[in-house]
Amino acid sequence: MLGLSSTTQDRISPCQFTTKELLPARHAICPGRGLYMNIAICDRYDTDVARINELLDANIKRHMLNHALLDVDTFTSTDELLASPKEYSLIFLGILMPGTDGIEAARQLKDGPNPPIIIFTTKSTEHCLASYNLGVEGYILKPIREEDFEKVFTRLLLPIFPSTHTLNVYSNRLLYHIPVSEIFYIESIGRKCMIHTSRKTYETNMALNHIESTLNDNSFIRCYRSYLVNMNYIQDILDTEIQLTNDDCIPLTLRKRSQIVKLFNKFRISHSASE
């Protein structure tokens, strides 16, 4: 079913196309190496090609998917794309193209034995119905906004990647999927929470209590009212603070120290037994 969400400027954010076959046959899970995919970006304007490439790379990093092996080819002509011997899992495709237009190119690609996921990128909404009839999975208006690209990436591409235990939070209006194993600790400051990881720190409006219940992970301990600590990264427990392996120190009350020590020792014993 086609679902269009528009703003007062009649901007499509992007069309919610669905198909029976979401994942083409030309991506593979390589043991020990993650996902391998061939991706094509085809647009008549070099600036748009560069923009899509930039956003794709940013989303791979944002969602901690650096283990994925993506082979990205760029084209400024659909005729060049159609003539390529390589098969693509995903194609970002402009519509108003020199020679064969994007609609006809999509028709030929979808009629092939292994039709790719196609996301149209265009300045106009007039091709939405034709796109849906062709089985095109996504439609993004130019100039391409970061949040529109993020929605398409989350809906169409993120489910393809090998899953890991993640904490899904919004930070600066963007959705991040943070691997729980990379979280050192979470700190509540006012009405916000700071999620400290091995890569960066994320700021979110989620309450600490909500994050704790969402994690539902016995690796985390509430050692202080405003702190949730991953016990995998505890270096030492002193009288009034907990030292982490990244050299950060978390405050600890004397009243809770004995309880924290018991929980930490129990965690270490169970963790050692499972290894």
Per DSSP, the total helix count is: 7
Q: How many extended strands?
A: 16
Sheet-strand content, in percent, reads 25-35%
CATH topology of the largest domain: Rossmann fold
Q: Could you say which structural class the secondary elements and strand pairing correspond to?
A: alpha/beta
CATH architecture of the largest domain: 3-Layer(aba) Sandwich
Helix coverage percent: 25-40%
> For the record, what is the CATH homologous superfamily label of the largest domain?
Response regulator
Name of the top-level CATH class of the largest domain: Alpha Beta
Q: What would you say this structure looks like, in words?
A:
This protein has 7 helices and 16 strands. The strands form 4 sheets. Strands 1, 2, 3, 4, 5 and 6 form a 6-stranded mixed beta sheet that branches. Helix 1 crosses helix 5 (146-157). The protein has 2 domains: 28-160, Rossmann fold (3-Layer(aba) Sandwich); 166-274, LytTr DNA-binding domain (OB fold (Dihydrolipoamide Acetyltransferase, E2P)). It is an alpha/beta fold and 275 residues long. The longest helix has 21 residues, at 254-274. Strand 14 (234-237) and strand 15 (241-244) form a beta hairpin.
Salient structural properties:
275 residues, alpha/beta, Rossmann fold, OB fold (Dihydrolipoamide Acetyltransferase, E2P), 2 domains, six-stranded mixed beta sheet, five-stranded antiparallel beta sheet, elongated, disordered N terminus
